[in-house]
Amino acid sequence: MQRARSFFARSAWRCRRGFASEQWSSLRQEAGISGVSAPSPSQLGQVVRLDELLKKTPEEVAEIWLGFHADEKGGRVGSVLAAEEYCKFVSRAKESPMFVLPLAKPSGYETLLVQCQLPYVLITGLEEFKRYGEGAPPYLTLTHYPELLDSHGLAVVRGDIIHEKGMNRQEARTTMELVRAFYTSDEDYSHVHTFNHKPAAFDFGVLLRKLNLAA
What we know:
By secondary structure, this protein is of the alpha+beta class. It contains ten helices and six strands; from the N terminus they run H-H-H-H-E-H-E-E-E-H-E-H-E-H-H-H.
């Protein structure tokens, strides 16, 4: 992990022009999230009364799930994915498990490191990763629940805010939707694929312009 920290300390700024393939390969191998204690259970039945939820229509399920995660004091955000969208997300998360995302901040933006190990997606600050490597405290953890795919044609997602100083609820909601967009939109996913498979061609500046964070 020291090699990964050293890599970021030396050359995080290079993401505008592209990572060197051999450096990125080393980072990808060492920045896994194995061993991270997720705040939410991996099974939907441990979160809700699944037998009762199965009696609801897809529209009711979505309303209940989103309503439950709308509590401003809850420290969580929620989302619902259609079956086709979820299956695309799963396939691409396995194919391209890591990404970097710029998140708008009052002073500009912060670069986030996204790591997929389904059903979880771990999101932390790039600067935090530079300091602590795989021990970096996560800002947000997304947990995906596919139990309703066959019966209702949807999957539900819970986002747990772990580090409130790193990310507030609005930022968590924005980040969750950005992850969804970049992994399920064919146009947006091209950036994720390039980052994972052709790192030398990855241009972080394109993301900044796309998200209106740079001229």
